[in-house]
Amino acid sequence: MSVSTPPTRCAWAGSDPLMQAYHDTEWGVPEHDSRALWEKLMLDGFQAGLAWITVLRKREALRAGFAGFQPEKVARFGEADVARLLGDAGIIRSRAKIAATIKGAQIYCEMAERGESFSEFCWGFTDGRVLVGDGHQRPTETALSQQISKALKQRGFKFVGPVIVYAWMQAMGMVNDHDHACFRRVQ
Fold first, then answer.
1. DSSP-assigned letters across all residues of 127-164
2. CATH number belonging to the domain at 30-176, selected among 1.10.340.30, 3.30.300.350, 3.60.21.10, 3.40.190.10
3. Which helix (H) or strand (E) holds 11?
4. Class of residue 137 by CB neighbours under 10 A (exposed 0-12, middle 13-18, buried 19+)
5. Could you read off the pLDDT of 146-169 as tens digits, one per residue?
6. Among positive and negative, which fits the CA dihedral 47, 53, 59, 62?
7. Separation of alpha carbons 180 and 186, rounded Å
8. Half-sphere exposure of 117 (CA within 13 A, CB side)
9. Across residues 136-143, what is the average pLDDT?
10. DSSP label of 10
11. pTM exceeding the 0.90 threshold for the entire prediction
């Protein structure tokens, strides 16, 4: 009888099965779908001031509350929707974050109406390449996350400071920041 050794993961994945599954299947996987990139950016905005596990535990409720993070639907949310969301104990109930998500959907839709791809906008900062972190230390922000943050803010996005943007860059696979010993480092 052989005993399988659990894979070596990045330390931040810890022992929580939800965090481990997120680490193993999502974090750092290059995402190029515009809608999925926008959803990830909005979820990272919801994390501001909170632990990521809080967002993961509430992600399905957030998806339900925000119409599957379909920007075209969220862009039309009004005060009744804001009130509904503020009354939903399953989500992160922050009026500012809810408003930022609605505004983010409107900006996303305006970009699409002008023929701009959100994916091309995002990946244009790296010419479509995945950046590779050093695998030993993970910065909380970089010159590039500062640049992307500034560009997003200029378009009107909120909750997109350089620290949030760097976390999003890691999550969406723009930067591979897996530890050197992590089984996901080489993909």
1. TTPPEE--SS---S--HHHHHHHHHHHHHT--S--HHH
2. 1.10.340.30
3. none
4. exposed
5. 999 999 999 999 999 999 999 999
6. negative
7. 9
8. 8
9. 88
10. -
11. yes
User: How would residue 133 be classed by pLDDT, with cut points 50, 70 and 90?
Assistant: confident
Convert the pLDDT of each residue in 33-85 to its tens digit. Answer: 999 999 999 999 999 999 999 999 999 999 999 999 999 999 999 999 999 99
Residues 69-98: b if buried by 16+ CB within 10 A, e if exposed: bebeebbebeeebeeebeebeebbebeebb
Residue ranges per structural domain of the chain: 30-176
Measured CA to CA, the distance from residue 174 to residue 187 in angstroms comes to: 13
| Nearest-angstrom CA–CA distance, 45 and 155 | 16
Per-residue pLDDT band for 138 (boundaries 50, 70, 90) equals: confident
Reply yes or no on whether the pLDDT at 2 is more than 70.
no
